[in-house]
Amino acid sequence: MFKEGDYVLIRYGEKKYLKRLTKEGSLNVRKDVLKFSQIIGKPPGVKVGKFEVYEPSLEEIIMLGFERVTQIIYPKDAFFIAFKLGIDKSSVVLEFGTGSGALCAVLSRLAKEVYTYEAVEKFYKVARKNLERFGLAENVRFHNMDFRDAPVEEGFFDCAFVDVKDPVPYLEKVHRVLKTGAQVGFLLPTANQVSELLKALDGLFGSAEVLEILVRYYKTIPERFRPEDTMVGHTAYLLFTRKLES
Ligand code: SAM
């Protein structure tokens, strides 16, 4: 049952709102008003007038609830990243940089533990607040530190994800802290960065793959079923590879 303080996802036609329930709170859309006191004590999936109220999904939490102070990894990419890295409840995951914490939130949902490093104090604080607000921070070890300076044990991590401007200078350290054969992924906005990284992997990492993910949503009007007019085009290239030891 919904209670005061819960975050809820409210749908009004095509519009989506993420709100925190308070007894006095309300949402006004056009001429319709949803008083939050009408929702408290009701189960998720309740309809009140034209409003539908649900528990928010992780995607909705990230897209509607997270403060964004950096570019973020979109859920369409983040869930695939977690799948490619083979993350499960036994995985100890390395991530840098944390940015706004969007990828970190997905990793934290799936992994045993996430060690995340962010060089800029402001971003570190926002990411931490984003995850704490939605109860996603319990298994996350946040570090306000350049990964270059992170004191980490050799062979400690089951997998890693790197989202920084130029990952090449960190390759040797990433190699050192991963278990042999472990997966590591990189996000790269431009094609020339992919080429640079592919060259630099030689001798350290094998089994490289590069891909991008395009997702096209459709209008859900039965009589006018067709793709949405706009879509997110290129977000980034994803490169996955595995630690090699000779
Ligand atoms: N993946 C993040 C998300 O989904 O919210 C966004 C990451 S953002 C694009 C890149 C971040 O890497 C920036 O916040 C930057 O400050 C941080 N960064 C860059 N180099 C770093 C380093 N060597 N160690 C730690 N953080 C670093």
Structure in words:
The chain is of the alpha/beta class. It has two domains: 7-56, Vcp-like ATPase, Chain A, domain 2; 62-243, Rossmann fold. It is 24% helix and 30% strand. It has helices at residues 58-65, 75-84, 102-110, 121-133, 171-177, 191-201, and strands at 7-12, 15-20, 26-29, 32-35, 46-48, 51-54, 92-96, 113-118, 140-144, 157-162, 178-188, 205-211, 237-243. Strands 9-8-7-10-11-13-12 form a seven-stranded mixed β-sheet. Strands 2-1-6-5 form a four-stranded antiparallel β-sheet, covered by helices on one side. Strand 5 and strand 6 form a beta hairpin. Helix 2 (75-84) packs across helix 3. It is globular, with a radius of gyration of 21 Å. Residues 70-73, 96-97, 99-103, 117-120, 123, 146-148, 163-164 line the site of S-adenosylmethionine.
